[in-house]
Write a structure and sequence with these properties.
Rossmann fold, two-stranded antiparallel ribbon, 8 helices, 10 strands, 8-stranded mixed β-sheet, alpha/beta, globular, binds S-adenosylmethionine, 21% strand
Amino acid sequence: MTRPLRNKLNDLDAKSWLKFQKSWFIHNPPPRRKDVLRHPAKFPETLAQEFIEFFTHAGQVVLDPMAGTGSALVAALRAGRHSFGVELNPQYAEIARQSIAAERQNLGAAAADLVAEVITGDAARLAEIIAAAVIPQVDYVITSPPYWDMLRARGAQTQKERRQSDELDVFYSDDPNDLGNIADYEQFLLRLTDIYAQMKPFLRVGAYLTIIVKNVKKGGKIYPLAWDLARQLGSIYTLKDEKIWCQDNVRLAPYGLGNAWVSNTVHHYCLQFRKED
Ligand SMILES: C[S@@+](CC[C@H](N)C(=O)[O-])C[C@H]1O[C@@H](n2cnc3c(N)ncnc32)[C@H](O)[C@@H]1O
């Protein structure tokens, strides 16, 4: 007879725990609902739910400081966790609220007692926002920032397709507070790290943070955003690990064909940090 697992972190059995421990995974995003297509770069709710179910128990509190269309909050509802999100662009915040309302309808009584709240605001003032909204102690953060100003790069295949549509955004916004509009890489890194640092007093000791990010190609060179962020934020939280998210359903573009090495980058880093002091 197998002994039941004494599990302080989550509600998973040993088999599911082990499955999550692999350092890479393939997750092809399911087709997006029409209402969230406007947003240029969201992560799948299905992916967020797997992380939330690993890093929390049912009933705990999840935060996404740059919530976009609210994928993390929808995933938290499905997983039976409370959630809070902050988003700068009021249109995305509204889409997130509508997605949450639709998900509540689907889930019925199972989600009736769960909080899922989206706050429209600038995450640069996160500490103030969290204090004003009386957000309870946070058990887990899952989030993904703008990948520097990559959406403004000419030539990205997905962006070419978006430019031809009136209903799809190419950039998050023209707001100067939008981190996706900071042209200077070092400034971007500093401001991003400051936002994540502001969350620290509100996190439970032992809470994990998952930050989904990519290295950025610009002007023929790589800016190692994932690695720089890991190093910089590693002075505030403990950098625990990386998990590499691969997509294998992406149409490949012939960048540099016959001329130079330019990869099709179809992986993201899910960086794991922990508040340990
Ligand atoms: C990669 S997207 C997040 C997508 C989200 N995970 C989802 O699945 O929909 C980054 C988001 O950060 C938001 N953002 C940029 N600067 C911000 C700021 N200063 N405060 C809050 N949100 C910001 C953008 O509007 C964008 O929606």
